[in-house]
Amino acid sequence: QVQLVESGGGLVQAGGSLRVSCVASGRTFSSYVMGWFRQAPGKEREFVAAIRWSGDTYYANSVKGRFTISRDNAKNTVYLQMNRLNPEDTGIYYCAARLRDTIVVVTSTSYDYWGQGTQVTVSS
């Protein structure tokens, strides 16, 4: 099994930056795909970014050019650097892990494990 713990959320002003982290423990070597999802109040959870073990990355159109996902396999950690934040980025950010590779990285059902989430609030 895999345990995921997010950190780094907080309150930032529009235009600011924030980096959230996700540390994995347990069966981490097989966490082939790591993803970030977010959920705003009253909204469904949506895909933000994903990264494969190889380093290939994927982004939602809404965050392309602003967010960067990275992975440090030695530290069992995945990061999401968020720049030029806007109020629409507000939500709970969840880290997710899939133990095996998959073609589909943008759907939540593709992932096996989830963290508790970290709140990101962007003020206008």
Poorly predicted tracts of residues: none
Q: Give the termini distance in whole angstroms.
A: 40 Å
- Rounded to the nearest angstrom, the radius of gyration is 13 Å
Summarize model confidence as the mean pLDDT. 93
Q: How does the helix and strand content classify structurally?
A: mainly beta
According to DSSP, the number of beta strands is 11
Quickly count the helices.
Answer: 0
In short:
The chain is an all-beta fold and 124 residues long. 0% of the residues lie in helices and 52% in strands. It is built from no helices and eleven strands.
List the helices and strands and how they pair.
Blueprint lengths: L1 E6 L2 E4 L4 E9 L6 E7 L6 E7 L4 E3 L7 E6 L4 E6 L8 E8 L14 E2 L3 E6 L1
Parallel strand pairs: 2-11
Antiparallel strand pairs: 1-3, 3-8, 4-5, 4-9, 5-6, 7-8, 9-10, 9-11
Characteristics:
4-stranded antiparallel β-sheet; 124 residues; mainly beta; 7-stranded mixed β-sheet; single chain
Give a structural overview:
The chain is mainly beta. Helix content is 0%, strand content 52%. It has no helices and 11 strands. It has strands at 2-7, 10-13, 18-26, 33-39, 46-52, 57-59, 67-72, 77-82, 91-98, 113-114, 118-123. Strands 2, 4, 5, 6, 9, 10 and 11 form a 7-stranded mixed sheet that branches. A 4-stranded antiparallel sheet has the order 1-3-8-7, with no helix packed on it. Strand 7 and strand 8 form a beta hairpin. The chain is globular and about 40 Å long. The mean pLDDT is 93.
